[in-house]
Amino acid sequence: MTVGIQVKQCLASLKSAQASLETFALNTQNKQAKQTYEQAATITSSVVNLVSQRVKQLEQEEPQYKGL
Amino acid sequence: MPVWIMIAIRSLVALVFLFVLTRLNGKRQISQINIFEYMAAVTVGDIAAMISADVNEEFIPGAVSMIIWATIPIALAWLSLKSKWFRDLSEGRATIVVKNGKIMEDNLKKLRYSTDELLEQLRVKNAFNLADVEFALLEPSGDMSVLLKSENQPITPKQIAWQVAPQTESQTVIMDGNMMDEPLTTIGWNRERLQLELEKAGVTLNNVFLGQISSSGQLYIDLYDDQLTPPISKEGKLLFALLKKCQADLETFGLSTENPEGKRTYEKCASDIDTVVQSTKALLTR
């Protein structure tokens, strides 16, 4: 049984990672590196979506984990 | 006019003249000077010395002579550029001395190159064993070019399919405590941005002797005070560690959840993040 808090923490870390990847993409001069970072940020954002959906499901099942 | 003033004037004029002539030659001559150009250059210097010091000679004829000696090599070099035939005639061709690991003794004889000289030149190029040499050429300039056998060459990342981060040249943005505007604009930064980075590192501009920005946008600084070490940017490594942690957490959730749909979701997420980790590994941990 996954604990809701831990999943939410993971979600927050993933959002932070996505933002950092996008920052790196903006900072770097090299085109190849830029592309790699942007792709990585896109994949991470899709993962963020999946995990958010999972969090919603968890909140429905266990209402005590609702909210921050 | 006293003699020494005349000599001073002549020397100064000859010096400026010499400088103008040598600058006309350009950069090529310095690195690839052949024996003819070298001797012509020495002669030009000699004439300059003569007209500076010898008051009995007239200045103008000496200057004319200098012009001839300085410009003919330039004209010949230009002609070499236009005509391959002339190039082969004046500069000569490279001679093969080692081919397929075997010494070409006939070529050595033609060049009047002794075996000792051959071995010496190979050693200069770090080839101490003839067994390691695949191919060696003696260039017209007198340098020897050595190609080692591929098994004796150092490994490149390409050969072992090791992903390395692409790297372009760094820009030097701070020199002797001054900000350089041109390199800054090349990487799209401005002075305020650089100042912000310096504040983040906790130093002021007058502490910094040299500042360079790498292709990844990272600022490296060298301070006047050799006791202090400036902080190294760890953002890339922190992000990498964070991504690995997320991946591990997602796998844990996948294992601990009982809901089969949840399991699938977590497993997919874990493998996606793993893809991200692998693709950015080289970039973040360089």
Count up the helices of chain A.
Answer: 2
Give the fraction of residues assigned to helices of chain A.
over 70%
**H/E series of chain A:** HH
Query: pLDDT under 50 segments of chain B (min length 5)?
Result: none
Mean pLDDT of chain A: 85
Number of strands of chain B: 8
Radius of gyration of chain B: 32 Å
* Percent helix of chain B: 55-70%
Terminal-residue CA separation of chain B: 70 Å
Q: What are the segments of chain A in which pLDDT stays under 50 over at least 5 consecutive residues?
A: none
Terminus-to-terminus distance of chain A: 19 Å
Mean pLDDT of chain B: 84
Q: What's the overall geometry of chain A?
A: elongated
Note the main sheet of chain A.
none
The computed structural class of chain B is alpha+beta
Give a quick account of the main beta sheet of chain B: strands, pairing sense, barrel closure: 4 strands, antiparallel
Number of strands of chain A: 0
Total of helices of chain B: 11
Structure summary:
By secondary structure, chain A is an all-alpha fold. Chain A contains 2 helices and no strands.
Task: Please specify the SSE layout and strand pairing.
The complex is a heterodimer of chains A (68) and B (286).
Chain A: H1 4-27, H2 31-61
Chain B: H1 3-25, H2 28-31, H3 35-53, H4 59-82, H5 84-91, E1 95-99, E2 102-103, H6 105-111, H7 115-124, E3 133-138, E4 144-148, E5 171-175, E6 178-179, H8 181-186, H9 191-201, E7 208-213, E8 219-223, H10 235-256, H11 260-284
Antiparallel strand pairs in B: 1-2, 1-3, 3-4, 5-6, 5-7, 7-8
Can you put this structure into words, describing what you see?
The complex is a heterodimer of chains A (68) and B (286). By secondary structure, chain A is mostly helical. In chain A, 81% of the residues lie in helices and 0% in strands. The mean pLDDT of chain A is 85. Chain B is of the alpha+beta class. Chain B is built from eleven helices and eight strands. Chain B has helices at residues 3-25, 28-31, 35-53, 59-82, 84-91, 105-111, 115-124, 181-186, 191-201, 235-256, 260-284; strands at residues 95-99, 102-103, 133-138, 144-148, 171-175, 178-179, 208-213, 219-223. The termini of chain B are far apart. The A-B interface holds A 1-2, 6-7, 9-10, 13-14, 16-17, 20-21, 24, 27-30, 32-33, 36-37, 39-40, 43-44, 46-47, 50-51, 53-54, 57 and B 165-168, 187-188, 215-217, 235-236, 239, 242-243, 245-246, 249-250, 253, 256-258, 262, 265-266, 268-269, 272-273, 275-276, 279-280, 283-284.
